[in-house]
Amino acid sequence: MSPPVLFLCYGKPEDLPESKLFKNLLSLSRQNKLPSHWACLLMGETPLTGEEWNQIIAEKLREEGLEWQENSLTKFEYFQVAEHSTQELTQLHELIAHLNVQLDLQGNFLFYPLQEDFSEFLRIIHSLGLSRPPEVRGFRRILLEMPLHSDLAGLKSKQRELHDLFREEQIFRRSYGLCPYILNALISLRFSNGIFEPLWNRHQIQAVEISLGDLTPVNREQPSFIEERLPALLQLLSLIAMDPPVLREEQAIRNEMLKVLLSLRNLDPYEIPELAMLGRLKSESLLQADIEPHESYLGLRIHIDNGRWNETPFYLRSAAGVPQDRLDLVFHFHPVSNRLFQESDPLDVQNTLVISFFPELKLELSLGVPAGQNTTELQAVQLNWKDEANAKSMRAGFDALLLDCLEGRQELFLRADAIESIEAWISPLKKAREQKKLPRYLYRDSEWGPSEAESLFEDLHAQWWEPENF
């Protein structure tokens, strides 16, 4: 069971029920995975009575199919911070101390800004002297949702603000797409099986695909699908492509992931239109309403310039609003160099390893076998294994990241150097989008993305792997 905690949030009252944190809390509550003692205190400038605040929370709970209970009054509190006066901050400090003692929260505080500009929140935390952990017991952590929409200079400025109050080990930066379930499965498969390490390099693997799709509809307020999805894709890439860590220890794993990010081949602005594309979901309702579809797809070809992966292309794609949650990793192995089977299409018999994570963990290995007794033609067969007993959803995996934060595990949270490396690398891509130099294509909701995305594979004997029953 996770330790007791007080979630301290800052923002508008209407933003908390729509936040990822609130959805995590409801989901974990249904699973009985929340700490036995916890509370959530929202600080904001909006004038609001206790009854009005309770109505906001109760309405959201009803939307989620949950009944409002009287004991929920102790879970969600609201405090107006209007003038930031000494008297006001003293009252706020007393309320926090009261909740801590009344609910036996053991001095554990998790700060969660609801707004992208969290400077005011940091000033309140500093004024209350809450950022440093107490000497006896208790933790102080801050959870940030990626991306922090900013250029590299702005991002570094935000990092300096954070580090003025918090040490790096207190800061948890969460990007959508990764979860403990994925980390454990990948590390177990790759590093506990001697068969994989000799194959995990450019000499054996011709190309790698990473496909991340989910049911979540496109957020029309999101300024860029690139900013929303690419950090998660690059984090996945770094986990897949990293060298073996020296220890099964979080900083050792994060160090190896950072090395991959630092080895990404820089994007040439003149080549970006050939390396990346955006897609928009073709919706009849939007077209009839004469509304331009929002970005909902990103496809990209990149290279890692290091000894392990040099000249092996990685193909990344992400789509929102697809029929089901998907995370598929596909490894295309080099074709054989002999000429014994010229009659067969090399694309049909190429060896591929597919690792799928949702809706269940699944492995699929494609091999070429004789098509008959008296022929040299080949046919492809698939060796399959799947863990049907432990089906997972992307939402459940994302919920688990909150528990990791409460327990202080940082493996899947982005470190400052990693997020700055990602921002520096994607800056040319963001600029190309702003200048409308990225090609955009339409696609249907029954597809992974636009058919034009096949062009990213150039002349390789490969194409996007498509899951069955998609």
Give an overview in words.
- The protein is α/β, with parallel strands linked by helices.
- The protein folds into two domains: 5-145, NAD(P)-binding Rossmann-like Domain (Rossmann fold, 3-Layer(aba) Sandwich); 180-457, Dihydrodipicolinate Reductase, domain 2 (2-Layer Sandwich).
- 33% of the residues lie in helices and 21% in strands.
- It contains 13 helices and 15 strands.
- The chain has helices spanning 20-30, 50-63, 86-102, 119-128, 152-165, 180-191, 225-241, 250-262, 272-275, 284-288, 346-349, 394-406, 416-434, and strands at 5-10, 38-44, 76-80, 109-113, 140-145, 171-174, 205-214, 276-281, 295-303, 313-320, 326-333, 352-356, 362-370, 378-386, 440-443.
- It has a nine-stranded mixed sheet. A six-stranded parallel sheet has the order 3-2-1-4-5-6, sandwiched between helices.
- Strand 13 (362-370) and strand 14 (378-386) form a beta hairpin.
- The two termini are 36 Å apart.
Could you give a short description of this structure?
By secondary structure, the chain is of the alpha/beta class. It has 2 domains: 141 residues, 3-Layer(aba) Sandwich (Rossmann fold), CATH 3.40.50; 278 residues, Dihydrodipicolinate Reductase, domain 2 (2-Layer Sandwich). The chain has 13 helices and 15 strands.
